[in-house]
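Q: Sequence in, structure out?
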Amino acid sequence: MEVHHHPNVEKKGFKEYFLEFLMIFLAVTLGFIAENIREKITEHHRAKIYAAEMVNDLVSDTVDLRTYINYMTNADHNVDTLFQLLSAREPKEIASGKLYWYGLFGAAGGSFVPNDATFEQMKSSGSLSYFSHSSLAKKVADYDRLCRTMKTDDNSDEAIYVEVRKIRAQIFEFKYNAEANNIYQANRVLFDQKRVDSFLMSNPPLLTYDKTIFNVYEELVRSRFFNRKVDRADTLYHRAVALIEDLKKE
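A: Exactly. Output:
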């Protein structure tokens, strides 16, 4: 009967097992560290791209906000002039050209729409955490919150804006109202004070001099809070400017 001889297997000592374990552990650990470093480098690169894109969005916002602020400030000043005229004299005692001109701005319309495509992309993908400073992500979120607050105000104003236009149509004849608006729009391109003064001194007919209707118009216009719109837009403008500087550092 054939006898099989089993080869002698040399048993490994504890040190050899430990060294093998240590090498595997180090390889896994170094792989993990390398992957983590790679992810950090990628996140840092993406953060720079997002920051640059957000700066472009905010620069556009500042341009739009400055236009909005100038427009609403002008409307606020003209509305105040209308209120002063009507509080001092009866409508019939005022040159109707002044009533048409200053009454035009009670129905000033406009809203600020932020350029938030980059922020929305970062928010939906959880990329705000890519910014190296957590305070920067908070500032971006705070800016977005202010934008949404302003949007809510504009939406609330929409219903009042419609009512203002309805009551205005009961006081001012459309063709003269359109003439005043055409002068205003032309002056935004090339200012002509003589043309404005000429219209202010004119006396186009009104549809009514009923003080009650004028009073309703004043109350509706007052409830639009033009000065508050200007204050909030101005706050948002300065936040945008400060945020641009922080993002440039990022």
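Helices lie at 14-88, 96-103, 117-125, 134-171, 174-189, 193-200, 211-222, 226-249.
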